[in-house]
Amino acid sequence: MAAGRSGDGIVGDEFVGRGEGTWFWWDQGLEDKMGIPAENITMIQLLEKPWLFNRPGREANYHASSPNVQELDPADQERYYAALQHTQDAFNALKQKPPQTGAGQAGGTLPGCP
After folding, report:
1. Over the chain, what HEC string results?
2. Reported pTM
3. What tens digit of pLDDT does each residue of 74-109 get?
4. How many Cβ atoms sit within 10 Å of the Cβ of residue 104?
């Protein structure tokens, strides 16, 4: 791998980060394996809404975004990310062994239940 990165290009069990058994499409796939220059890559996370919210960026996940939408109510962003966290919590609960069946259902007590 280029630029001091490590990994074998294989997705790990928990996709925990860099190193043995990990895979990041942005750099290991596009840069290292396909030769696309880093300056031609913009990393985004669609669920982070880079066209709407100002976000600081996260290594190997998405670049910083600063659309500075004038009409955006800060409470809207807070509500959106709270809902997104419920979704992530439910997804994580369903990935457990055994899965926490019912996670994310309205009115429930399991993770991700609003």
Report:
1. CCCCCCCCCCCCCCCCCCCCCCCCHHHHHHHHHCCCCHHHCCCCCHHHCCCCCCECCECCCECCECCCCCCCCHHHHHHHHHHHHHHHHHHHHHHCCCCCCCCCCCCCCCCCCC
2. 0.61
3. 899 999 989 888 888 888 888 888 888 888 788 888
4. 19
